[in-house]
Specification:
about 85% helix, Methane Monooxygenase Hydroxylase, Chain G, domain 1, mainly alpha, 2 domains
């Protein structure tokens, strides 16, 4: 049964059947707004992550991806704290319980999507660093592979080019170290949010048990109502049949009594 169907069953067509809690509603609206920001950020991040490892990949792009993931992780933590606070309310109406559950479920789905994007970015970053490390080691090997040439020829060929080559090697090494640090940050972020994801999943599971209980109770009430209606109709038919029998007996008695009276009078 969907959330919307359950909401319709519970409300029974009524409107505004509970007293509003301003603090609950304020937190609920705040979480919904942050969820919209999270979903929008996921869409933008997905576009950037898809470009990683392609010809359009640039340091500026990787920096944008890194910053986006940092901001989104912080946003997820804020929403997670809000979802936990939302569970502390007691004596909620059925509609409020429905909204409480829907916020948790929507956050779980958005958080799962973000975690998938982080893992995808992590895989691409690792593949890119592996390729860069292999190229770097190959270049280093080539730089030392000409040791068998005459000394004067080597000195002529490698004076300035060797300095430029070493600077390039150092630069590439620094880039690789920087990207390896980014990989460690992504791995740590994935691990941190895994804890939050398990907590939210537990909240959603508990709420779904409550929803199923409410749905079962609603269905049972409907079944009991239908059964009571059937029994009422059957009782009405029995009463009608009993009244018809009573009328027939009275009519027969009246006829018999009339015949007896006529026999007495005429005799």
């Amino acid at each position: 049964m969907s959330y919307d169907q359950l909401s319709n069953l519970e409300s029974g067509g009524r409107r505004g059947g509970y007293s509003d809690d301003p603090a609950f509603q304020d937190l609920q609206y705040e979480l919904k707004s942050k969820l919209q920001s999270l979903l929008s950020g996921n869409r933008k991040l997905a576009n950037d992550v898809n470009v990683l490892g392609t010809k359009k990949d640039t340091p500026r792009l990787r920096e944008r991806v890194h910053n986006s993931m940092e901001k989104t992780r912080e946003l997820c933590r804020e929403i997670g704290d809000g979802v936990k606070r939302l569970q502390t309310w007691d004596d909620l109406s059925k509609q409020q319980k429905y909204e409480q559950t829907k916020v948790s479920s929507d956050f779980q789905a958005a958080l799962q999507e973000f975690q998938s994007l982080q893992r995808k970015a992590l895989e691409k970053e690792k593949a890119s660093v592996t390729a860069a490390r292999a190229a770097h080691e190959s270049e280093s090997g080539q730089a030392g592979g000409s040791a068998g040439e005459p000394l004067d020829q080597l000195q002529q060929q490698q004076q300035l080019p060797q300095l430029a080559s070493q600077n390039e090697v150092d630069f590439q090494e620094a880039l690789i170290v920087e990207r390896e640090e980014e990989i460690r940050n992504i791995e740590q972020g994935v691990g941190d949010l895994n804890v939050l994801f398990r907590q939210v999943a537990q909240i959603v599971d508990e709420q779904e048990v409550g929803i199923r209980t409410i749905a079962d109770n609603v269905e049972n009430v409907h079944d009991d109502t239908r059964q009571a209606d059937v029994e009422t109709r059957q009782a009405a038919r029995y009463q009608k049949a009993a009244r018809n029998k009573s009328c027939c007996l009275l009519l027969i008695l009246a006829v018999i009594l009339t015949i007896v009276i006529l026999a007495i009078v005429m005799g």
